[in-house]
Amino acid sequence: MIVQVLVSGIAVGGIYVLVAQGFYITWRTSVTLNFGQGDFLMFGAFVALSFLRAGVPVVLTAALVVACLAVLGAALERVAIRPVMTAGHAALTWAFTTLGVGVIIQNAAISIWGNSSQNFPPLFGGKLELLRIGGVGVYAAELVIIVLSTVIMLAYLWVLRRTLFGKALAAVAFSGDTAALFGINVRRMHMLAYVIASVLAGICGFLVGPISVVHPFIGLNFALKGMAAAILGGFASPLGIWAGGLLLGVIELTSNLVSSQFGDLYPFLVIVLVLIFRPSGLFGGREAGVDPAR
Amino acid sequence: MVRLVRVAVAVAVIAGLPYVFPTAYFTHLLTTIAYSTIVVLGLNVLIGFSGQISLGHAGFYGVGAYTTALLSAQHGWSLWLTFPAAIVVAAAAGLVLALPAIRTKGLYLAVMTIAFGFVVEILSQRWVEFTGGTMGVYGIPALSWLGTPVGGVGYFYVVGVVALALQLLLNTLVGSLWGKTLTAVKDSEQAAEAVGIDVLRWKVLAFVVSAGCAGLGGAFFAHQNGYINSDAFTFSTSLFFLVALIVGGLGNRYGPVVGVTVLTLLNQLSAQLYEYRFYTLGVLLLGVLIFMPFGIAGGVTALTRRLGRRPAPGSGPPPAAPAVPTAAGAARDGIALSVRGLMKHFGGVVAVDGVDVEVATGTIHALIGPNGAGKTTFINLVSGRLVPDRGHVACAGIALDGTRPFRRARRGVIRTFQNLQLFSDLTVAENVSVGAHRHVRATTLEFAFGLPRARRAEAEARRRTAALLAALGLAGIADRRPDEIAYGHRKLVELARALAAEPAVLLLDEPVAGLNATEADRIRELLARMRAQGVTILLIEHNMDFVMKISERVTVLNFGQKIADGTPETVQRDPVVLEAYLGRRHGATAAVTTRA
Predict the structure, then answer these.
(1) Closest partner residue to B114 among A80, A90, A224, by Cβ?
(2) Beta-carbon separation of B53 and A104 below 8 A
(3) How many helices (H) and strands (E) does chain A have?
(4) Across the interface, do B290 and A261 touch by the CB < 8 Å criterion?
(5) Domain count within chain B
(6) Residue A137: helix, strand or coil by DSSP?
(7) Nearest CA in chain B to A268
(8) How far apart are alpha carbons B353 and B345 in whole angstroms?
């Protein structure tokens, strides 16, 4: 039972981690983030659902979801971020505009796919197929999520730490003006960060589809949990956020065991407590230019 | 008088509105607009004036609604008690949320408020024994007067008049020194603290006022239909309030009523166009923010201002400088500012290394040194913006160690900033009046109702501001905003703001950097006059000509250490100082003359 909860928690936590990385990467590069990130996740889930129902193979569907969300991310930066970062706009205007785009996407989803809950076709054996590993029953879909989210996280870390692009992002995060002097196209970096964030959200949508129902309003919940994961990690390092997200998933599943009536409440309690007592996150450490509390 | 006529017109409009379309449906709609306006008025205080964010206002609205609903329907309380209770409980919720949230601003505050809204939503849905969940609370009594229910139109009148009264109160508040103080907190917390404003307290206050308004709006909502359930307190309700405010005009007095009216009517009109109904909120939010960031009311204000704009008055010759007001009865002898063993390091760099400085009362004391010597850090330590690793700071014998910047400012230690920190949304005159904050004793309620003490504070600040603007030759630009005036003028405005506080000790970080010779001379005369009136001045400056002419005493810092301290003449000839400025080889022969 405990192992079962742990596995489910880590699977759900893996989703939160990817959503949180999306928050982190744009926050770090442009000190803005997408308050509609959850709606992007929902949109990814619906796009995947449509392609799968049309008989498109799983791998091709994944590629199409990534492409769709990449375009959406670039459009978001162009429409909701860039125009309001100029003088004459109040400080947190980007929060409102991204929220607005999220609402538009939510409404688009309602008019395209309707207002009701829908289920994914069984992809990797479905929610109910149990695998026996060392005497412990584990859902195949959860295992797939764990494996895929880990692979994606490793690839993401590799991009951030080892590629020239990752270093350019870090330079922009440290000082956009200085980075521009060294020939880095800062605007493009902002846009690419949004593309990555949005693709991560889309992948999450594709991953949660098989273990959850899909409806136009699932976004907010995931966005908030992703935010909680980022806060647990202190918004400071991708690794801290990784740990924070997995921890949050496990806390959530465990708290559901204790009381299912208010199960959803505990993650918020975690946010509030962390913000009160450890505003820099559970794992200390802080990078230059990254301080969401200021 | 004009004001009285306006209020009479507003009352007449409220009285007449239900008869435009005398149907129950239209009256219901009007009532909805009225209590939503109450909520959004409060939201405007928070977002528009204090610059904080709430994405969970439906939470406070819900708290207010459940408070009055449960107390009246299940405990039989009189509505005379449940309405105040709704306000108080919601305001208390605001306080509880604000206290931890306030240390974090920006993003984290936004997240806290979303989380709060979500918590209220979950509790109202799932805590069925208490809130009735989706089944809701039934039988909430309607408002009645002398035993008879007031009816639909009567209820609208009550809500409408309350909304009007709140609008008037808030108009008075935001137009007063109180509102300017809140805007100052929004524009620059650092500068606000530097004139003695308790920034945390003001931010919490804005939260509490805002939550109380939302609670009142929620209470009116609860008694409108006699029934509430959890569906009314979701994230989309928070979004509605937010979009209404933004569409109407963030930070505009009439933004709330305009936005709520437009949005409510739009929702009703587009209800027929079912397919498109959903798009309105998102598209409006995005469109308004990008194309008209000040909303509808803001656009109208800008338009009327442009139409009615008179040519700006020419600056003309400055009037004869009147006496600059200063703290009366400042002690003329002794040590005004005493710093002992002050030490601060950043990582491995020791920025200020065990510095002792004593500034005699009524003198001008200069702190000089090459770039990176630790001068600004020293000012930041004295003003309380940075916490020293070791050492003591005392003003007129009273220890300031461990106190926040605003407390030091209230003691009379007032500073200016090297990179100017003016309040960008306030005019020059308002910037200076806020400087007098440490002398204001009136409370929020006194300002809201325009009581004598508030009026006196207002008049006193005006008088002091006028005198200062005249003395610094700024009277011609009193109504401009900081981004509309030249750099030299901005610098003078910041000095005027500091002087409005009637400092005992004035800390000036490069008062003449970037100014031309005439402006620098004007500042020199002004500072000399301040000194003559007993003000103690500690200044950092690179302009050696200025420093040597004006100061009684000069302290030289290099790499965080005090390397010399004495009269301008002795310091100028000190070989150690020459070496620090000019290097070893030249130090022996050259002398420090102008601009190091």
Answers:
(1) A224
(2) no
(3) 11, 2
(4) no
(5) 3
(6) strand
(7) B115
(8) 8
- B473 and B526 inside one domain: no
The residues with which B399 forms a beta bridge, in sequence order, are B394
Report the complex ipTM.
0.84
Q: Which of B209, B233, B257 is the last residue of a domain?
A: B233
How many domains does chain A fold into?
1
Rounded CA separation A236/A200 (Å)? 18
The reported pTM is 0.86
Q: Using an 8 Å CB-CB cutoff, list chain A residues near B231.
A: none
Q: Evaluate whether residue A69 is within a structural domain.
A: yes
CB-nearest to B250 from A90, A271, A276 is A90
pLDDT tens digits, one per residue of B151-185: 888 899 999 999 999 999 999 999 899 999 999 99
Q: Distance (Å) from the C-alpha of residue A246 to the closest C-alpha of chain B?
A: 20
Range of the domain at A153: 2-277
Compute the nearest-CA separation of A144 from chain B (Å).
30
Q: Is residue B524 part of a domain?
A: yes
Q: Do A271 and B112 touch (CB under 8 A)?
A: yes
Closest CA to A27 of A273, A283, A241, A243: A241
Distance, in Å, from the CA atom of A253 to the CA atom of A267, rounded to the nearest integer, reads 10
Residues B222 and B352 in one domain: no
| C-alpha distance across the termini of chain B, in Å | 60
pLDDT for position B594: 43
Inspect the interface and report whether the beta carbons of B283 and A104 lie closer than 8 Å: yes
Residues B343 and B435 in one domain: no
- Owning domain of residue B208: 25-233
Domain co-membership, B391 together with B465: no
